[in-house]
Structures
1.
Amino acid sequence: IVIKHYIEDAPKESHFKVKSEALGLSLEPGSDDVIVKNLYISIDPYLINRMKSHSASHNAISFATPLIPGKAIDALVIGKVIASGNAKFEKDDVVLGVFTWAEYSVVKEQSIIKKLESSEFPLTYHLGVLGFSGLTAYGGFFEICRPQKGEKVFVSAASGSVGNIVGQYAKLLGCYVVGCAGSQKKVELLKEKLGFDEAFNYKEEIDLNAAVKRYFPDGIDIYFDNVGGKMLEAAVDNMKAFGRVSVCGVISEYTNAENKASPNMLNLVYKRITIRGFLAADFMNVFGDFTDKTLDYLRDGQLKVIEDRSLGVESIPSAFVGLFNGDNVGKKIVVLADD
Ligand code: NDP
């Protein structure tokens, strides 16, 4: 799947096309390439920022480099090796790596993050709760916010891949947790299945500031921001003194430049609020701690896993577009074949 041209605002399925290309399923003699049959593709919002013609300004960060219309789109993928010229990989190895929105990818060793051994949990967890979504949630919450038991935590896009894990970590720590999401069904999921104390549908609120105040009459200690825009402004208005805002992403701003947040900076000064952005890759030093803690929670059944699957390579455009319409509940994955 490729983009036909750069996308400047909200993505539509018509912006993408299926491109068929012959792939030599045998390797040239002497090649150290690995041919991977892709099984599970992670669908992630940040890619929209690489589909814009002006994304070049972020060239320094590899996962912000602009994509080229008509060329392969890279993504986090779990696949099975079908041929390998590289001695470190052999046929039938299951690997996690940065491959492509395609049925097969020919990759170099440096694109392979690791081999996945069979484990007690589904392989797809390595794209979500045990992968980058989980690490993002873990690092962005524990490392950036330094939460304490009993603190009041607000999470936006709370039913999404990162947000639902943040809310669950916060509940497991003993915080009061409120999430916002874009439908009544999602609100019910947060409260009834994931244990959030409260949740609300931001699309039904006329005054976001008043909505946030309703759930935090004494203020917010920690805001985990996945959306930016007006919700960030409302959260900052309701922070307590020394509150921490962890800026994970600003999805409401990716497709509409008019949504750019302008929080009340005087509030920041008087209340000594910290607002800090981060990248999941910043937390590789705590990957072991993250994995140990998350596996314990999963084994105890304390952490619920929500995945949202679509089938087949042709479903990639709608799966991706759906992220910006709130179609997904939990980690969005496109399944191409089973392991
Ligand atoms: P999600 O699974 O949360 O999917 C995106 C969700 O965002 C949608 O389901 C939708 O839920 C919500 N959304 C879409 N458009 C809007 C809008 N205009 N206003 C408010 N909410 C909107 O995706 P992820 O968990 O993968 O990502 C969440 C955020 O974290 C994104 O901003 C992403 O870029 C960022 N991120 C950052 C990383 C980092 O390293 N810093 C790593 C991974 C993700 P709803 O129905 O509630 O509107």
2.
Amino acid sequence: MQVTQSAKLANVCYDIRGPVLDEAMRLEAAGHPVVKLNTGNPAAFGFEAPPEILKEILGNLADAHGYGDAKGLPAARRAVVDHYRERGIEDLTAEDVYLGNGASELIQMALQALLNDGDQVLVPAPDYPLWTAAVSLAGGNAVHYRCDEQADWFPDLADIEAKVTDRTRALVVINPNNPTGAVYNDELLRGLVDIAHRHHLIVYSDEIYDKILYDDATHTCTASLAPDLLCLTFNGLSKAYRVAGFRSGWMAISGPKAHAASYVEGLNILANMRLCANVPAQHAIAAALGGHQSIGGLLLPGGRLREQRDIAWTLLNDIPGVSCVKPRGALYAFPRLDPKVYRIKDDALMVLDLLKAQHLLVVQGTGFNWSEPDHFRLVTLPRAADLADAVTRIGTFLDGYSQP
Ligand code: PLP
């Protein structure tokens, strides 16, 4: 008898680790190393865990083997509160903070606790696809709003407004953005908050790249502009602190909570059901948020991340028919392939062809719920020389590439 997956998974898709990975593994098993530019995992590219994080985890390990509080260690939650108070989110106590096995777990909990079947959530296109997948798994429909490549990939406010219906429950903001690298200014954030206000939407603000900013970009917490809006802010240690494998993230609920008591109770049920998040990694949160921010040096001129972003952006734009908006934050580039130059009907096939030809793995734009087969995403994490080599090979592959 066949064992089939549940119907709940019908619209759940996460192409960053999609089927093309099987082909990559086949190639590697056959002795062909593959350059994997598909996941934003700093450790895989030689970024080390900051010593202060390891010190806290190791120093507390012997006492971290029991279940902890379902919401997380109180000291770590208090550190999150202090951190957000400094960033303008005033109305927050440790009770409003949940720690999770990465932001991913908390994103799924937040949506599971909110959505009834058929409820709608406004999600950016392109998006980090976990958001669309988690909405679908929770029974909702992700309604994608357009981010405008011609306007530094800023969300199109008119498009968002036009897509609000009486089933819309929430608005997702990803800032700094994965995959585009956009960093939103306050004016844009105020526009998003205003829409949420007028239509009584919850705002989910994914700010996991808040400290990975280039040039003169600055980051504002959405919730700091919206004290009277229910806002859930997500963040964690995976990116700025480069310890994705420790699975440590947090979620902070701000704004008017009195009318959301039922929703908060739902979140508590889900937090209790998974007992607690990985306890050892929670010990690192206070150390990570306080004091010296070791990411800083990587982002300054001459810093590794900044140099890599520059190289990827410059060399991608040197490829005929390829254009890339300069990423202002995060760890990715999301270039466009001019349809007048490249005939691509199926961008997943393009990614597979690139893998077979150059042993190089990127992710197709449609994997980020972008509707046209004319983009792809690569991570800007490899060392400059490796990244330059990879982008040159993408250019070699694209030269003359066309699908029948
Ligand atoms: N949100 C965004 C925008 C991401 O890019 C990622 C990971 O790539 C996550 C959330 C998940 O992070 P975590 O490792 O904390 O689960």
3.
Amino acid sequence: ATREDGTPQRPSFDDEFAELRAEMVRDQIEDRGVSDETVLEVMYRVPRHRFAPMVSAERAYQDSPQPIGHGQTISQPYVVAYMTERLELEADDRVLEVGTGSGYQAAILAEIVDEVVTIEIIRDLAESAAERLGRMGYRNITVLHGDGYYGHEARAPFDAIVVTAAASHTPPPLVAQLRPHGYMVIPVGRSGWIQNLLLVEKNADGEVSSRNLTSVRFVPLTGGH
Ligand code: SAM
């Protein structure tokens, strides 16, 4: 896709770690059942190591979360791929992410959809993610500093919402900002414990249902709510 001025909306990458990414996609993601070709392709394309500057590139491609500072993490590759697949994204979607962290999940989303809004509560992380994504060439991601519990009313409704921190309950403002036929994926449960990864669906009449997909372990959703 290109913007009106002819510059590409998304960057292209060429780096020495493509082989590590191919292994990551095959062994950690495809072998565990993620089958959406678009999701597999973008997980192969996006240079994850650039979002995890505190660890070596080799470690960035391992089957686990990695530290990004401020006690926060970039999520495990499989979890990013799995959550992305469950959103059933379309190319013209607008997606909200709560918990920008490194910006990696936002980049994965931005490779698939038109527009991504992502909110991060730790100012330093919001600023460094915005700077990193800008430097890498992403033009369709807006990084906001704030409490994502309240979503972002100004750009609502969203076709899909992904929350990458564990909440004690599904935030009503996020449900309100989800478009009919939209999916939200959110870990819900006690922080410091295993949480349920919920798939929340809003039907055409605005009725909301949710079901448990699997167990996950995320850092807590903080904030004043
Ligand atoms: N998606 C991130 C990535 O790709 O690197 C990983 C997210 S990390 C597991 C969770 C993030 O959620 C942390 O950066 C944390 O500061 C942020 N967070 C926690 N509570 C939040 C809130 N209420 N609003 C926005 N961000 C929040």
4.
Amino acid sequence: MDKQMENITIAGAGPVGALLAVMLARQGYRVDLFESRADSRKANIYQGKSINLALSDRGWLALEAVGVGDTIREHAIPMYCRVMHDTQGQLTRLPYGQDEQAIWSVSRAGINEQLISLAEQEPLINIHFEHRLAELDFDSLEARFSTKDSGLVTHNSDLLFGADGTFSKVRRLAQELPRQRISHSLEYMPQSYIELTIEPNADGSHKMEKNALHIWPRKAFMLIALPNTDGSFTCTLFLDQEGDTSFESLDSEEKVTAFFEQNFTDALPLLSNPVDAFMSKAASPLCLVHIYPWVFNNKVGLIGDAAHAMVPFYGQGMNCGFEDCRVLSELVAQHEGNWESILAAYQRERKPNGDAIIELAKRNFVEMSDLSGDSNFLLRKKIEQQ
Ligand code: FAD
């Protein structure tokens, strides 16, 4: 295939789709990036949600590759340690590493918008907001997108990537293909989550130690908090969806108040209306996605959460998706634009890594919610770090 003749479609302009678009355009490909939602820089699509994420080395490496590491670092907060809060409000601090090693708290919306703005500057990229992939012919690569104003619109290309997240339409359409051997699973975890907020002090400062990831480990459930640059913390409560102490069982203001008083003594006065938030918010599910293959007909590939959605307990979902992009981009250069070999090598290299990190993330719930509150475990970790 002539490199200049190749048009690439990416479904999904989340962090992974946006970064992938930039990397491919920088290698000379024409990229059409389709996003089902409106442009978040112009419309409030997050409905008050302020998800923040931990960015670690594998994520930074990919961002540095497109030269946006420094810009993103300006809006990120280094977290040098985890701070565990016990039921009495006593704190234990455990560094993440040595020599100021840190993971970084970034806003998901912020990093996504920065990557979309970067993509917009690339002459070879066209971004189409409010275009939801609805149909795809895996042979001709004719794709149909539903739009608000123009109904279904058709777009043709030579290659297509599904970067459309946990419930990927590309993946679901691939699963319906005849004569393909596709193994797939989507597993719901017992836990769901809601987000809560700790607002800044009146002077804009943080109400708890700023450069830390805070954890209230309570074995079967936990609360965590990551700092934001405006002085607030975004907190996430992970709790079983059903069972004895769960989103379903805590069904009155009295029960929820008692739950917070018993378990999150020191957080309770800091949180903004946690009981109201708990009662009014629908808890979001957590899912694991496995699929093989990641590549169909040598011209459709899955990337990011579409290929390997995982639980957030290892803080690696987006980092891992960014690593997919970096590795893919390196393979494009190595295989000189031969997409059959690029996609085969991408799948060979990334699928085992995706599986491994899904498993590690799942296991890390026990470390975060249980072991991190265990004094023997903390002592062992501290000794290991010396
Ligand atoms: P998404 O972010 O899901 O983006 C997919 C995009 O595709 C969306 O914009 C969506 O609107 C669009 N789309 C969907 N369907 C279509 C369609 N049919 N047509 C067109 N567009 C479509 N990761 C970390 O690395 N560190 C963390 O600390 C971390 N913490 C997390 C905490 C929580 C509570 C959760 C839920 C996740 C966390 N993650 C974390 C995971 C991280 O959010 C995801 O891995 C990351 O967002 C995946 O990016 P993506 O671009 O692959 O998918």
